[in-house]
Automatic annotation (TrEMBL):
CDD domains: RecA-like_protease. This is ATP-binding protein. It holds the Pfam family AAA. SUPFAM superfamilies: P-loop containing nucleoside triphosphate hydrolases. Residues 29-161 form the AAA+ ATPase domain. InterPro entries: AAA+_ATPase (IPR003593), ATPase_AAA_core (IPR003959), MT-severing_AAA_ATPase (IPR050304), P-loop_NTPase (IPR027417). One of its GO terms (molecular function) is ATP binding. SMART domains: AAA (SM00382). Keywords: ATP-binding, Nucleotide-binding.
Length: 237
């Protein structure tokens, strides 16, 4: 996790832990977060980490799966979820919130999705319980401006910089990283890949010939070397 992201997540944990004291002084803890960024950049991980650090259950709600064509049904489901938010303290992750973005909705769905978006905004605004709400989106450009304003904190997850590439690889491969590695070549090859894709490439390389190749896996020619650095620098997913 990038240091500035870590810092902001730590701040959320601190405010959540001290919420009674903050409220006693008339302040509200951050309790509505929006995480944006391309797929596989690590948006879901902090939701898990926050739930773990706060010792709370993590509930994941996929908004795209919640939307039905039946008028009013989606809003009713959303109400049930927000009832639970108020009753059961937890970390609630609303994944794919861009499913509610107006521009994405075409044809007959427009009216219904707009109504759902309005309900979601209202619920967000009214949320005063001790639960922590986290929304995640791969397409922030599709999100309604009104949605951004409802959050206490917006955190962007960009594709990894070369430094982050190196950290992700070092963390995943740990002691398998040889002392002399062509880091520059590897960083160039990883350019444009997400943290998740780099992690998969590392795992693929680490399990390559000489280690344990899975019986039904035929690695692409570029990955046939037993050297993890060669596999990572050529594996493009
Ligand atoms: N900063 C990171 N360091 C190490 N590994 C990471 C990092 N970010 C992501 N990963 C790896 O990528 C996997 C997927 O990350 P995650 O599910 O959090 O991404 P996401 O942004 O939520 O993706 P999506 O938008 O597709 O839901 C993780 O399980 C982890 O293996
Ligand atoms: Mg995710």
């Amino acid at each position: 996790m990038a240091p500035d992201v870590r810092e902001r997540i730590d701040r959320v944990v601190l405010e959540q832990r001290q919420q009674d004291r903050l409220r006693a002084h008339g302040f509200e803890p951050m309790r509505r977060l929006l995480l944006t960024g391309p797929p596989g950049t690590g948006k879901t991980m902090p939701a898990r980490a926050l739930a773990g650090e706060l010792r709370l259950l993590l509930f994941t709600v996929r908004l795209d799966g919640l939307i039905t064509k039946l008028m009013g049904e989606t809003a009713a489901k959303l109400r049930l979820i927000f009832d639970s938010v108020a009753e059961t303290r937890g970390v609630y992750l609303f994944d794919e919130v861009d499913a509610l973005a107006g521009e994405r909705a075409l044809g007959d769905d427009v009216g219904e999705i707009r109504r759902v978006l309005n309900s979601f905004l209202q619920f967000l605004e009214q949320h005063e319980s001790q639960s922590l709400l986290i929304a995640a989106s791969n397409h922030p450009q599709l999100l309604d401006r009104a949605l951004f304003r409802r959050f206490d904190l917006v955190v962007e997850y960009p594709l990894p910089t070369p430094d982050v590439v190196r950290t992700v690889i070092s963390n995943r491969l740990a002691s398998m990283v040889p002392p002399r590695w062509p880091w520059k070549t590897i960083e160039q090859a990883a350019n444009g890949l997400s943290q998740a894709e780099i992690t998969v490439a590392c795992e693929f390389a680490a399990k390559a010939p000489g280690h344990q190749r899975a019986p039904h896996t035929t690695p692409p020619p570029a990955c046939s070397s037993s050297r993890p650095d060669a596999a990572i620098s050529t594996a493009v997913y």
